[in-house]
Design a protein that fits this description.
By secondary structure, this protein is an alpha+beta fold. It has six helices and six strands; from the N terminus they run ααβββααβββαα.
Amino acid sequence: MSWVCAVSLIAAGSVSNARAGCRDDIAGARHIGAGEFCVLGFCLYRAELWAPKASIAPLSSDIPFALSLTYERSLSGARIVSTGIDEIQRLATQPIADATLSAWRDAMRRAFGDVSRGDELCGVYLPGRGARFYLNGNVSAEIDDPAFAQAFFGIWLDPRTRAPSLRKQLLGGN
């Protein structure tokens, strides 16, 4: 169940109500889809996807998007980072160098603190640049690494995600 916590914690996204800072990073942002991430009846967060086009192919195009998570449970920043790194490694098509993982871990520590019920984390995918993260509407970190951004948002949007029904809902499906 640690991947569940990590995914929920790692999820970059605070836009249940789409706080201005995060959504404003996406010109013409539209709500694409939303869903809850629950395990064994415990809902960890509500996720929402915002983008300038009604239909996007995440991580395979030059379309920016924002992924927000509004938490239903308290989680430590350390747990979010640990789970996120585990999921990034699981989804990698080839091993990721230790130095790269260390740098990504440090960047994630800057971006994600502890969260409580009602807190929002929002991650903005910046194609070709990296990602910007918000905690409760305030910028918490900018990570200028396109490979990190693709790996991170893949936790939710890669077809091999551990939460395929949430992915489908985020992308506008039922």
